[in-house]
């Protein structure tokens, strides 16, 4: 019988859409199959629980998000410039749970398509 490829707790949490502490509790209660070796949990990805359904208010189409690096490539500027625009309020953004800025692609393309952005043209700033 082949040995399954096991994944650590963090990867199992990402795959199952659950918080790592929740997976630990489920493993300890016998609800999820896991190995506990040298103080670490390891899971068989094929035996992880299904992802929980999205709450009703989050169902539907979510906007495409872009990183500062992706926005910078479009505008041909440094990613720090994009961050500066966001801090100045020139480019709307949202924060991820990890605290990173993400930009809605529709807003970025709208800004990119403007002929004269805030009265400045051709100098790399919006």
Automatic annotation (TrEMBL):
Classification via Gene3D superfamilies: 1.10.1660.10
Superkingdom field: Bacteria
GO molecular function terms noted in the UniProt entry: DNA binding
InterPro entries given in the database record: BldC-like (IPR048048), DNA-bd_dom_put_sf (IPR009061), HTH_17 (IPR041657), SinI_DNA-bd (IPR010093)
Domain Helix-turn-helix: 65-115
Matching NCBIfam families: excise, HTH_BldC
The name this protein goes by in its record: Excisionase family DNA binding protein
Organism expressing this protein natively: Allonocardiopsis opalescens
Lineage: Bacteria, Bacillati, Actinomycetota, Actinomycetes, Streptosporangiales
């Amino acid at each position: 019988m082949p040995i399954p490829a096991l994944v650590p707790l963090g990867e199992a949490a990402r795959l199952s859409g659950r918080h790592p502490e929740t997976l630990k509790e489920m493993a300890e209660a016998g609800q999820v199959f896991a190995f506990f070796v040298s103080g670490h949990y390891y899971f068989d990805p094929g035996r992880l629980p299904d992802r929980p359904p999205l709450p009703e208010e989050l169902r539907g189409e979510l906007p495409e998000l872009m990183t500062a690096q992706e926005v910078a490539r479009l505008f041909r500027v440094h990613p720090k410039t994009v961050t500066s625009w966001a801090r100045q309020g020139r480019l709307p953004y949202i924060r991820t749970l990890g605290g990173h800025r993400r930009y809605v692609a529709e807003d970025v393309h709208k800004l990119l398509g403007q002929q004269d952005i805030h009265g400045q043209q051709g100098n790399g700033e919006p």
